[in-house]
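Quiz preparation item.
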């Protein structure tokens, strides 16, 4: 079993949320699942996370490599058929860097058409809503806690709120772990 992990840079303000990425790696390692972090090779304007203002222009792939554990690859070099599932950690970079990306749109569409599960957290659901359904899991999310997840069976989209519902890393880890475990169980059925 092999998972793709879509990264959008390094840091909540302009990329992927670092803590969520690390907790995804932790959950996949815990269940002995092979995975590959990927990002698109495009430039973007960074955010100075200390001052919360625009900073310099950098590259999404290069910035994502900071969390890619030396394994990261350009999404355009990947054959989606080789992977069983996709996980998308949150972070504002998903929307800012990828909302107009045909490459990332094609990635999401491919996993949907192949009926492969997509796990999302935090802002990742917003990216899927722009392309799939603006109401995707909206009702289910209202009462969802950080240590829980929900699921849309038709689109095979999983979601855990992570930092949208808590700043407690342990609670967030529980939600990510449960979501990843459910995705693995679905694939094994």
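Solution:
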């Amino acid at each position: 079993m092999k998972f793709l992990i879509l990264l959008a840079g390094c840091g909540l303000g302009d990329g992927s949320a670092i803590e969520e990425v690390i907790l995804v790696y932790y959950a996949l390692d815990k269940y002995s699942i092979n995975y590959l972090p990927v990002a698109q090779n495009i430039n973007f304007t960074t955010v100075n996370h200390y001052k919360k203002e625009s900073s310099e222009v950098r590259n999404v792939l290069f910035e994502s490599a900071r969390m890619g554990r030396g394994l990261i690859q350009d999404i355009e070099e990947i054959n989606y058929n080789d992977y069983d599932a996709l996980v998308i950690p949150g972070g504002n970079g998903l929307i800012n860097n990828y909302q107009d990306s045909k490459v990332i749109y094609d990635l999401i569409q491919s996993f949907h058409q192949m009926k492969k599960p997509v796990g999302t957290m935090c802002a990742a659901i917003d990216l899927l809503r722009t392309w799939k359904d603006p109401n995707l899991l909206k009702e289910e999310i209202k009462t969802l806690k950080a240590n829980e997840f929900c699921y849309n069976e038709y689109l095979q989209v999983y979601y855990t709120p992570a930092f949208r519902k808590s700043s407690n890393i342990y609670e967030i880890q529980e939600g990510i772990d449960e979501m990843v475990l459910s995705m693995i169980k679905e694939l094994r059925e």
